[in-house]
# Entry
Amino acid sequence: MPPKRHLTARRVRLGAELRRLREATGMKAREAAALLGADAVQISQIESGVAGVSGERVRRLASHYDCTDDGLIQALVAMAADRTRGWWEEYRGVLPAVFLDVAELEHHATFLQEVVITHVPGLLQTADYARAVYSYVSPGLPTSELEPRVEHRMRRRTAIEGEGPTPYETTVHEFALRIRVADRKVARTQLQEILAQIERGHATVRVVPVDQDGFAGAGASMMYVGGPLAQLDTGLRDAPTGTAFIDAEPQLKRLRTLLRRVEKATLDPSASRDFIHRLAKEL
# Structure
């Protein structure tokens, strides 16, 4: 297939999985290319996500790589065949590509788990809250750039609110709930929105209270995105250069361990709901 104009995290992940399968056999790219009647450049483009690949070729490569995991092969074929042009594509060229990649990951996720320490989770933010955050972290953004960011953040909610919503569980620190990114009215409305999402069944929320002993997870903010099978899970963490997408199993294992550690410091969902309700009444 010809090279694609736009790289996406999903296509890059498909290529990475095919590369892992090839490298596990000790096969060189040129050897894999010969089996397809292609050249090493084409294999390199497929594995880097620059070029697409058909489901048929995925099956052929998996066969040559001695992969006998039918579940993994089916999942990779589905990724190769996916031609979804989601709502996020409307923002291509308007917002940084990472915004689109996150929305696409959420759209295809089988479950979402998130830990947020300093802000209300993006999937639960109100427009006014999001606008205040974007205005602060990117001062001087013109309206033509600020408003698409806010709109995109609101539309991401379709992952947890739409038809066949994705199970979503988030842990948020009390500090994030108390910090006023704008004013008292915005803060109160934001807490009420979180409670509404809980009541609608769109989110399971756990709170880490500020007086919790033994919580050293100030840098624990992350999202864990469930794939069609565990091998295709993805982790997202903030990095100095932007959002880092994690797909290596040792790193994913560390993220799962961190999720369990953070959860031990939280109130249960029922107590967390009551806690947020009390905070809202204080405002």
Summary: DSSP finds 13 helices and six strands in the chain. The beta strands are 112-116, 168-173, 204-208, 222-225, 234-239, 242-246. The chain has a mean pLDDT of 93. The first helix runs from residue 9 to 25.
